[in-house]
């Protein structure tokens, strides 16, 4: 159930307003730090004296899991704070936390220090995207907010490519210092960014804000939330399985040369940058988030098929090109977060927009063991095909059954 609130004052009409710029740059630094560990994993562990390949793999998984645990915890924490204290407090609080944690990462001397700092960084990284998308969606006119969130995503995901370039050229410790420094420099742009008018109005309403558990006390509301999560889960299957394990898949495909996880991430995120731009623009041109999601999910299904069944004996160049196309087809990530924000009222919007992407990322915790269990009877390709098909079909169903949110008036609250 929803209740209307008083009309809001006119919102900014500029797509290059301070709020869009700060949210875009914040997400840029967020993505830089999010993927940096995957890029410098081997070099950083070698630098700490871990050189046995099996130990590098096992400790790398441990550190990634610590970062993911932080993100799951931070997703709930920042989401609730975003609806209780405001979108700006989360936007800048999360930047400060992960920036300091990443600077500290550059000084680590032990695995335990590394692990706890990845946990803290994960908590900080969890808040940026949801708070930024929520603030932009509530600050722009409803006819333009899709373009605004498109800009945030397009600028943001390019941070992965910069992380690869920095990681390759400046060493792993300096890469962390640079990422943290970028985040701290971003805080100076806080001047000129104002809190969402919708949130300010919601504070004056007698309705509970940021009640995470209320998502589970109403069946219709829970159904909306679960479908939002299902839309976002396939991308982390792509990144967490197909791209992260690119060297293993390359060996299975008998490629004509070796491929690396770092370059696979680079090309995938380059495709994602273009994909987020395309999906955001298309959703505006079609006046439909749902139809755009359906198109991209079907394209993603096709590209997963090409990756798994069309690369045997291919060249590394062809493999990287398919990684790029996978990222392009999977470029509905920001549209998924936008739809999640648009599906809920002002008093729960930040909670949903922040927890949804982090829980979708956290699906990899379930995907990984399922993938390992299926490899025995079905091989690495068969296991990936089963998981990919199930996740993408569920995502397509979810996009088809959610109510259309393009042009939706967001001036309401969940009660």
From TrEMBL:
Domain of life: Bacteria
CDD domains xref list: MFS_SV2_like
Gene3D superfamilies recorded: MFS general substrate transporter like domains (1.20.1250.20)
Membrane topology classification: Multi-pass membrane protein
Keywords linked to the UniProt accession: Membrane, Transmembrane, Transmembrane helix
Main location: membrane
Presence of the UniProt keyword Transport in the record: no
Sequence ranges assigned to domain Major facilitator superfamily (MFS) profile in this UniProt record: 19-400
Transmembrane segment boundaries: 12-39, 59-81, 88-108, 114-135, 147-167, 173-194, 225-246, 252-272, 293-312, 318-339, 378-399
SUPFAM superfamilies for this protein: MFS general substrate transporter
Subcellular location field: Membrane
Protein name: MFS transporter
Source lineage: Bacteria, Pseudomonadati, Bacteroidota, Cytophagia, Cytophagales
